Amino acid sequence: MRILITNDDGIDAPGLKVLDEIATALAGETGEVWTVAPAFEQSGVAHAISYTQPMMVSRLEERRFAVQGSPADCVLAGLHDIMLDARPDLVLSGVNRGNNAAENAVYSGTLGAAMEAALQGVPAIALSQYYGPGNRDMDDPFDAARAHGRDTVQRLLDKGAWTRGGYDIFYNVNFPPVAAARVKGLRAAPQGLRSDMGFGVQPHTSPSGRRFLWITGAPQTQPTHEGTDADWNLKDYISVTPMRADLTAHDMLEALKAIE
Question: Nearest CA to 156 among 67, 242, 79?
Fold first, then answer.
């Protein structure tokens, strides 16, 4: 199996090293793992692409490349340039430092990479490690992802639904914020929404008098509806959410016929 791995935390992120371990185990002795990741952190860029400017690609070593662009750019670079002669069988994105459950999924560059791969017709899975009191102070906060990542991806490859044509399925996997030994299992779950959650801004004035705004977040332990991704994560389960790039609110189409 040929696997392309990427992320949004950057080429030197510890989570990418974890993903390389997962991908190497999946690819096997006869397979290949190619890394095409952002040269610098690209968290929060979602599915952005560098449409109005070029991006520099640097070969760091065999099958390892850094791109001055977004995670989706990295997938495009991998599919249409770096691996042009032999496209990957699978794209893995992550392992993100922090969860991409609930509304975080909308902003996630980790998911943006998986979405782009799906739009290009390549099976893709995004993997993220939830951070919380149960793991953030551990020597290896990625313990749950490291221990359960390969099995989770393999189960999706063996038993997951992989559509072909139209808006293909990709998967959003979030590992709970606990040590690997405390993970209770895996649950298929819809995307949740944390109550009273949202990004904002905090203004600051620099010593030179210029005004800047810092983006602010909110606690990641806010409750979501029972049975959704973040709910299962906070109950020590791995969540798996099937996704598509189709943004249509299909449940509203019938009601909207009144405007015709």
Answer: 242
Angle value at C-alpha 10, between 9 and 13, nearest 5 degrees: 75
Question: Is 75 in contact with 110 (CB distance < 8 Å)?
Answer: no
C-beta atoms surrounding 116 within 10 Å: 27
pLDDT in tens, 25-53: 999 999 999 999 999 999 999 999 999 99
SS3 205: strand
Q: Which two tokens stand for residue 16?
A: 């990418």
Written out in words, the top-level CATH class of the domain with range 2-194+223-259 is alpha beta
What distance in Å separates the CA atoms of residue 186 and residue 192, rounded to the nearest whole number?
16
8 is in an annotated binding site: yes
DSSP structural state of residue 70: -
Backbone angles phi, psi at 127, to 5 degrees: -125, 135
Q: Tens of pLDDT along 237-258?
A: 999 999 999 999 999 999 999 9
> What is the per-residue burial (b if ≥16 Cβ within 10 Å, else e) of 202-223?
eeeeeeeeeeeeeeeeeebebe
DSSP state letters, 126-172 = EEEE--STTTTTSS-TTHHHHHHHHHHHHHHHHHS----SSS--EEE
Alpha-carbon distances, residue 90 vs 23, 147, 205, 240 (angstroms): 10, 20, 46, 17
Let me know: does 34 contact 75? Beta carbons within 8 Å.
no
Strands 237-243 and 185-188: parallel
Domain range annotation of the chain: 2-194+223-259
Is 96 annotated for ligand binding?
yes
Instruction: Confirm whether pTM is higher than 0.85.
Output: yes
- The Cα–Cα gap between 18 and 236 comes to 20
